[in-house]
Amino acid sequence: MTASITKEELWNQIQARFFQKLGTVSFSAYIEPLTPIELTAASLRLSVPVDEASEIINRWNSAYSMDFVQFALEITGGTFIKPDLQISTTLTESVVAPSPTITTEQSVPFSRESDLDPDFTFEKFVTGSGNENAYAVARAVAEQPGKVYNPYLIYGGVGLGKTHLMQSIGNSYAKTNPQARIKYATAEDFLNDFTDSLRASVDGATAAFKKTYRSVDILLIDDIQFWSGKEKVQEEFFNTFNALTKNGKQIVMTSDRIPTDIPDLQTRLTSRFEAGILMDIQKPDLPTRVAILKNLSSADNLEIPNEVLELIAENIDSNVRSLEGAFHKFEAKIRYMNKPATKETAQQILDDLNIDRGQKVTVDRIQETVATYFMQTVADLKSSSRKKDLVNARHVAMYLTRTMTDESLPDIGRAFGGRDHSSVLHATNKITEKAEIDPRTKELLLDLANEIKNGK
C-alpha cells in the first residue's frame, strides 16, 4: 500500500472526506492545520502546530480518529492505518501550504471545492420501505435533470442517507455526461462563499461567485436548515434559484425537516421549494438494516454469518451512520485484533457502544436537545415568549420530559420558567394529540427521544 500512495496523496483524500463531513468551520480548526510527516505500514504521522496542539489532539481523540481509520480503509481498499498526532517541534515539520493564487477566472478566495464523493452512488444505496420513494425520484432526476421534479428536496433525520442519495444524482449524471457542470456544496459552503465574495478586495469577486453557482447544470445543496434566520444568504439563494430554474437547470437540496418547519425561512423560498417535490427518508427497518450490513461486508470481502449481522441490525436502529459505525468497529475487531466473526464479538461491540452512547435522561438534557433541534436556546424555552415556533418547541420539550422522566407535573413546570402544572398537562396533551394524527410529529418525537437517550 505505502508504495502505491504517498503520505500527501493519502492525507489529501482524507482531508477531502473530512471537509465533506464537517464543513468549513470545524475543518479549518481541526483538520487543515495538520501536516503529513511520515506514512508507515500502519500509521500516518501528522504534525500538530504547538500553539493549537491541546485542543486539536483532544478533539481527535474524542471524535475524529475512528473517522480517519474508516476513511483510510476506504481509500486504500482495506489497509488499516491509524492517525499518529505529534506536536510540531521543528520548523521542517511545520510546513505552511502556499496561498492559492487568485486568477482572472476565479477572482475570489472561495472555500475548498466540495467535490462529489465517488462512493455515493445509486448502486451502493440500499433501498427499503423508508427510502424507496425518495430513491425512485432521485433516479428520475438523474435521468432527466431540469425536466422532472425540479427542485427536488430530500428531508429526514441525521445519518439516514440524504447526502448519499443527493450525490448519487450528480455521480450518475456525470457518468453519461462527463462534460456536465455539477456543483455540490453544503449550505454553509454557500454562505461562506457568498460572504467571502462580498469581503474580497478583488474586482469582480461577486460576479465570480454568481458565475460559480449560476452556470451549472445541476446544483446540489446540503442542509438548507443552516440558513435559518440568515436573510442575506436566503436572498442570494433566491436569486440563484430563479436564475437556474429559468434556464432549466436542476436543483437538489437536503434538509433535516420540511421547509415550512425551518424557523425564519422566507415564505417565498418555501413556496419555491414546495413547487417541486419533497420526499422524506425515514429510519431503515430491520430488513433494510441487515441488507446494508451485507453490502458493507461484501464490499470489504468479509464472510460474516447472517445471525451476526442480524444481531447488530436489531440493536442499532437509530440511523445508517450509526449502523455503519458499529459495523466498522466490528470489522476492526475481526481484521486487526483477530477476533472471530461471531455473535459474542458483535455483542462486545454493542456493549461498548452502549457504554459510549448511554446518556442519563435529565430535564437539562431534554431541554438542550430540543432547543438545539428547533434552533432556540434553553433560556428561550424557559422564557415567557409566545412566539409560535418557540411555543411548539417548549411543548415538545415538556412532552418529552413528562414521558421520559419521573418528574412530577409541578416539578416540570418549575423547570420551564416557573409554569404551573396545568400548563405542562396542556402541552403534553396537545403534543400527544398531534402525534396521533401527524406521522411527521410522531417520527420527530421518536428521533428526539433517541438522541436524548443515545447522545447522537
TrEMBL record:
Record-listed ATP binding positions: G159, G161, K162, T163
Subunit structure: Oligomerizes as a right-handed, spiral filament on DNA at oriC.
Stretches assigned to coiled coil: none
DNA-binding among keywords: yes
Organism: Convivina intestini
Protein's cellular compartments: Cytoplasm
PROSITE patterns: DNAA
Domain AAA+ ATPase: 148-285
Protein family (similarity comment): Belongs to the DnaA family.
Function: Plays an essential role in the initiation and regulation of chromosomal replication. ATP-DnaA binds to the origin of replication (oriC) to initiate formation of the DNA replication initiation complex once per cell cycle. Binds the DnaA box (a 9 base pair repeat at the origin) and separates the double-stranded (ds)DNA. Forms a right-handed helical filament on oriC DNA; dsDNA binds to the exterior of the filament while single-stranded (ss)DNA is stabiized in the filament's interior.
Biological process according to GO: DNA replication initiation; regulation of DNA replication
Identification of the protein by name: Chromosomal replication initiator protein DnaA
Annotated domain remarks: Domain I is involved in oligomerization and binding regulators, domain II is flexibile and of varying length in different bacteria, domain III forms the AAA+ region, while domain IV binds dsDNA.
Chief place of localization: cytoplasm
UniProt keyword terms in alphabetical order: ATP-binding, Cytoplasm, DNA replication, DNA-binding, Lipid-binding, Nucleotide-binding
Region (Domain IV, binds dsDNA): 335-456
PANTHER family named among the record's database cross-references: CHROMOSOMAL REPLICATION INITIATOR PROTEIN DNAA
Region (Domain I, interacts with DnaA modulators) residue spans: 1-94
Domain Chromosomal replication initiator DnaA C-terminal: 362-431
GO cellular component, one term: cytoplasm
